[in-house]
Design goal:
154 residues, alpha/beta, YbaK protein, 5-stranded mixed beta sheet, 3-stranded antiparallel beta sheet, 8 strands
């Protein structure tokens, strides 16, 4: 059980854990997840960690989309940002790349969720390791993480 699953279970938030066989040769984790789970890439969300220069943030966008640095900077209220160093993201969140969950992080980073998630009853996010996803209501994710929404994709 991962910290993400423990947190969401303790909070009594309705969710479903989905496990699938991760191919160690695959580095396109989000697409692999959607394919293995048999769901649209629009409903599977990847957690990307960005560096604002003042700290790290979680940017949660659909696998089918591409994070817009200009859009996330505007939503986060910063002038510019860049993708975080992978080693720093892993150390800060406590998860490995391809399995970074927005929930149960070692140091909970601010969460920004692409507004497209609100069009779904449930979305899929990483449960804290490759090959493991959490399906939950996007409003519950926002409530648990005190996240904000906005247009984050190009």
């Amino acid at each position: 059980m991962t910290p993400a699953i423990m947190l969401i279970s303790k909070a009594r938030i309705r969710h479903t854990v989905h496990e699938y066989r991760h191919d160690p040769q695959c580095t396109d984790y989000g697409h692999e997840s959607a394919q293995q789970l048999g769901v649209s890439e629009n409903q599977v969300y990847k957690t990307l960690v960005a560096d604002t220069g003042k700290g790290l943030i979680n940017c949660i966008v659909p696998v089918s989309g591409r994070l817009s640095m200009k859009a996330i900077a505007k939503v986060a209220g910063v002038k510019k940002l860049r993708m975080a160093d992978v080693a720093l993201a892993e150390k800060t969140t406590g998860y490995i790349a391809g399995g970074i969950s927005p929930l149960g992080q070692k140091k909970q980073l601010p969460v920004f969720l692409d507004e497209s998630a609100l069009s779904f009853e449930t979305i899929f996010v990483s449960a804290g390791r490759r090959g493991l996803s959490l399906e939950l209501c996007p409003q519950d994710l926002l409530k648990q993480t005190r996240g904000k929404t906005g247009r984050l994709t190009e």
